[in-house]
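Section: Multi-chain targets

For targets with more than one molecule, the full set of components is provided together so that the structure can be written out for the assembly as a whole rather than chain by chain. Components appear in the order listed by the source. The example entry contains two components.
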Amino acid sequence: MLKVHRDICGYCGCCVSVCPEGALELIDAYLSVEENCTSCGICAKVCPLGALEVVHEK
Amino acid sequence: MKNNYDVLIIGGGPAGALAARTAAEKGLSACLVEKRPAIGAPVRCAEGIGKEALTGFIEPDPCWISAEMSGAVIVAPDGFEMSLESSMAGSKVGYILDRKVFDRELVWQAAEAGADVFVKTRASAPLIHEGRVKGAQLESCGNVTKVNADVVIAADGVESKFGKWCGIDTTVPVREIMSSVQYVMTDIDINPHATIFYLGNEIAPEGYLWVFPKGRRAANVGIGISGRKSGKGHRAKDYLDKFVKQKFPHGKTIECIVGGVSVCRPLDCTVADGLMLIGDAARVVDPLTGGGIYNAMYTGRLAAEVAADCIAKGDVSKKALMTYDKAWRASKMGKGIERNYLIKEYLIKQSDEKLNTIVHSVSKLDLKEFSTLMLIKELLKANPKLLVELGALAASLR
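Its structure, encoded as tokens over all components, is:
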């Protein structure tokens, strides 16, 4: 699943623009992740600050 | 807030503001909603704009101009500097804006023209009836309302969702998002009247690093790198920190800004039944420079003009609104985007050695017209070999 490190996030919306599922939305200073997120990791790659992380559940 | 408007504009940046101002000036009832609590903040921009580009929309005002530019410098990967000046001695070629104040002024003008404006108000879903966009559901401080509009203009920026909700694919390819970070720095030694662009795969892979003066000893120091070159340990911030540590070790950072800038081709289609997309939401950023303020204002104004026409004729179908899509593509802006897209695609594939060769070919250029097109033309004169490499594109540049 996708983890948002909210203390790192600069709420810029860079990730929202590349999400192929439309699963991210920037609501002012809050990034929301919807259920259709596939944990593809594209957003985590492009984040300028490294605020997103795909966490594999054990 | 009324339940019905002629035009509902989503987003209060330069695109939305120009659309709202133009719509109101045309006698339409217009409503602009901005999801953030303040117009203009947070800034997501390096704030540079050409002089001619700006004055077509608004009279320059010292209140929102941080600095006036008289030239630019391009720095090759090996440190060689190419200086660009206007052949008109002493003339101003561009501005670094104060977007917080600039954006507010534009929205102020829209409001004065008669548009309604609401902040901290977010479009959370489109209203769709029989396949046509008829308005939007708006959320503001816990209140949910439905607002109908003949035309909805989506100006919701790089993080645009409205178009997607209406079936338009606005996804930016990973390699074509510029992952960006910028520091507003003070107490640094700079030339306060020239923008500086640093090139190189070590400095800013498939992008560039900029120093845009904001005053005598202050500047926007930022970087954009391709999304595909970004990753753990080598993100935009890592590259910028490395540069700042080396170049401005004693500077103070008073603001840290992040963002994404699309450098893809514009959307295949920027209209649907009852819907128009403008500015960054339409992906009309200049793919070579990453500049988007002019293109946002241009598409904003044009969209509202076409919307007014279509509403007057009682036809806001996709077919009718296509006038807007066709017009911007055929415009100088539209053609410039396509040309600069191809130039960008060429440049990002070049090695540092090649970039060095190109920049070394000229140490100082006096440009008749201070534009990327003029710069490219001069570089082609100095590097005739490039004509062959650019192929068909070169012909359009002569």
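Chain B is about 30% helix and 30% strand.
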